[in-house]
Each structure stands twice: as structure tokens, then as C-alpha cells.
Amino acid sequence: MKIAFVSGATSGIGLAFAKELSALGYSLILHGRSADKLTSIARILPSVRLTLVADLANDNDIKAMLEELEKQKLVIDIAINNAGFGLYGKHLALKVSDINAMIAVNISALTTLTHYFAEHMTQHGRGHILNVASTGAYQPQAYMAAYCATKAYVASFSEAIALEVRADNVTVTCLSPGRTDTNFFVFDGADTSKNNKGTFSAKHRISANKVAKLGLKALFKGKIREIPLFENKFYVFLNRILPRSVVLKIYENAMKSI
User: Fold this and answer.
1) What average pLDDT does the chain have?
2) Half-sphere exposure for 25 (CA within 13 Å, toward CB)
3) Strands 190-191, 186-187: parallel, antiparallel or unpaired by DSSP?
4) Domain of 37, in residue numbers
5) How many domains, in total, are found in the chain?
6) 149: number of CA atoms within 13 Å, CB side?
7) Would I find NAD among this entry's keywords (predicted)?
8) For a Cys staple, 31 with which of 2, 7, 129, 214, CB 3.0–4.6 Å?
9) Dihedral over Cα of 17, 177, 82, 122: its sign
10) How much is the pLDDT for 231?
11) Residue pLDDT, tens place only, 194-228
């Protein structure tokens, strides 16, 4: 049985990936921060082979997780680096410790995991890696300045690494979903869709299940970049052709409406 690893698998897009891969017959290695949530998921997904509890903002946790994977001596066919989080608000109003934790998870941990899986996959001559970025990777956004910068790194890094490992029959796909219906849009305990207004309201979102399906479709095709839905592709295209000052103003106004 082929094996798939998913980070951040206890909710949202990560959980959707786990369910899709289970339905496709993959044996699962799931990562999360909550042992209780991972145990609950293992009860409903019998294909779960191993659960790994780790805070990816902590280097020691990452080291311990990779050591456990080494002990298992498993050949992992698919690695989904999904774990990540965002912070909303004026940059100076956010805690520096929270910003640094986000950078650690979104950038440092993803880079470490990509290196680990790519190294092993190239040794075995096959494998697929999918790194989750965001449409926020393609333009700066006021009030989510550091978050979008981390996702810009993920997109650039993933697309470059894809070129380096493709000769070894290893693919790297950067998945950049837009507004997705997950807990990402809960700020200070309140969901931004309560009044169903604004660019991030529920009516504008795509389901996590659909994101996972489209992501896996792109992965199996060996695509380097996947931006789900025409609407999101169109926004990214506009960002490239409109003057930078116009793009920045558009997103400043949009982010204020959250």
C-alpha cells in the first residue's frame, strides 16, 4: 500500500487531504498539534498508520518528528506540507512572538520538511510533494503583510525546487487556494462571514474538500503550480498587469472590510 504524509491534518484543508487520500487507498501518516484530534481522526479513517504530534514552530518538535519517521523506515509516496497559519491586523499591533512563530511554521518548517521528503524521494526515484501556499503569495496585502510574505516564499521556493528534482522523477506542486471555508477566517473568536459582507465572506469561499480534490489532481498530473478556480486565476492575472499602486490600494480596501 502506498503511503502519504499530511501536516496540519486535524482540520480544514489538511483534513480534507487526509480523507481524499484515504479514499484513494493510501496509508496515512498524519501530523497535528493535538493528540486528541489525531486520535479522533484515526477512529474514522482506518487507513491511518501513524500519527505525529508536533508544534512546527518548535525546532525540537520537528527534529523528534523526523527522527520518528526515520525509525519507521517507510517509503513515503506523497507528502502534503499543509500546516500553516495566518495573522490579521496592522503589523505593529501584532505580537512579534506570534509573527515569528508564523514565519517558523509557514517558512522554516515547510522548508525543512520539503528537504527531508525530497531527499528521500530522489533516493527512491519517485514521489510527489505538495506545498500549500495561497493566492496571497502573488500580491502584498495590508493587514496581512507578514502572512502574504510567507506564502510568497512558499510559492517561489516550491516552483524552484520542482525544477531541481524533476529529473529524479519527483514532482513538487505549489497549491495556492484563495478564500477557503476553514477556521482561517475566525478572528478574535468571530467568523468574518457573520454579516455575509466583504471579500472574505462565506459566499465567496471554496470548500476545503474541493481544494483538496483539485490539489491532488494537479499533483498527479505533475503540475508545478495550481490555483483553484478561474476567479482566483483571474485575480492573480490582474495583479500582474495592473500598476502596483492600484493593486496595493485594491487589497488595502478589501482587507479593511474584514
Assistant:
1) 88
2) 2
3) antiparallel
4) 3-256
5) 1
6) 13
7) no
8) 7
9) positive
10) 73
11) 444 555 545 556 899 999 999 999 999 999 999 98
Q: Return all residues near 104 (Cβ < 8 A) that are at least 6 apart.
A: 56, 57, 58
- Name the catalytic one among 26, 88, 147, 251: 147
CATH value at residue 37: 3.40.50.720
Query: What size, in residues, is the chain?
Result: 258
Tell me if 15 sits within 8 A of 208, measured CB to CB: yes
- The phi and psi torsions of 9 (rounded to 5 degrees) equal -95, 5
Show the CA angle centred on residue 51, arms to residues 125 and 98, nearest 5°.
Answer: 95
pTM for this one?
0.88
147 is catalytic: yes
**Angle at the Cα of 99 from the Cα atoms of 95 and 255, rounded to 5 degrees:** 90
CB 48 within 8 A of CB 31: no
